[in-house]
Amino acid sequence: MTNFIPAILFILLFFIGLILVLKWRKGQDDPDRFFFSMIWALISLSVYLLILEIMHGSCFILIPLGYLTFVLWMYFRDKTRLVNGFLFNSFVVVFGTYLVYNVSVTSDPIAFGLLIGALALFLLFGFFGIFSLMIFLYWNAAVVLKKERRSLPNLLTLLLAIFLTVVLIYDLFIAQNLPTWVTSLFSGLPLIMLYFAVAFLNFLTVSVLYQFNHPRYRQDYIIALGAGLIDGERVTPLLARRIDTAISFYRRQLAKTKKEAKLLMSGGQGSDEKISEAQAMKNYALSQGVPEGDILLEDKSTNTLENMRFSKAIMEQRSPEGYQAIFTSNNYHIFRAGMYAREAGLKADGLGAKTAFYYLPNAFLREYIAILMLHKRRHLVVVTLIMAVSVLSSIIMFFN
After folding, report:
1. Could you list the residue ranges forming a coiled coil in this record (predicted)?
2. Does the pTM exceed 0.70?
């Protein structure tokens, strides 16, 4: 019973603090209750575990906290590096290892509950992960095909589901009936799949972390990134959400600080478009009540990198003394857009517009493939080395 008294007190204080955090954020222009609730949970849990350890004569929690400090330093030093996803995921492993130690020393019910929950999720995914993933991918593919046009980017979840199905059928029904040298030839496939799965997990993690940007209300420019048009002259719902996010920040900043920002619409004219994306975006912003004098156009770019480069040139020309800028795009796209901003030498964080949930799996897979292509040589080397070992092993078995 003694072990439960600190746990009960912690739970009580945690929920009191959580209510205060939610009340505090309710009156803010950008409440983001989830982000600040997670911050409070991390701080309160860290203090609780530290007190428990001090009571038992140790302070090993300083190891995961020190590593978390390093992870956060790396992240805020440059938010657009893929290594940040790996570092955060490795922190989760370090913290999980620490929980095992804490439970063994303190027998605390809070730490024990966290550990059991983490192990349950891990085991659940280990035993049912691939089947659950396949079911989800087929379901998502059916929804996307029903609601969106049939194009290769919209078929990514279906293609992945089919690939996983083929691999599963091969592993369960075919592999055991093949000669050993043939199965050895394909033995590198699981390693390659694991490599790309870990790479995707790191990408997804850093993409989610990047969603929690909170730029201050002191921006001189808000860049809205363009996308394709309907009938060559009207913004799509997806593009409208990007512009709405920019307009929302523009209005919140004006209301809070009285500082006027310029909306910089960035997008050129495609071969199948009647007007530039920037002009269509301006027309939409005007229809939403934005004064024409607060809208600038960048209408020469053909891709995201050029969006950043050409927008930077306009801002530097207008504000040679320096400026503050952010950009808006859809939430699945802002991390890669941030990478292009860094490549263009533009110091700007991204704000993500919400995207329909059913569309996110395809969208993130498309972003992942695009980022893989940015580092294709590195991935090609890894795949080649794995396959070389498999081929060599297969040859040896064939002649033995």
Report:
1. none
2. yes
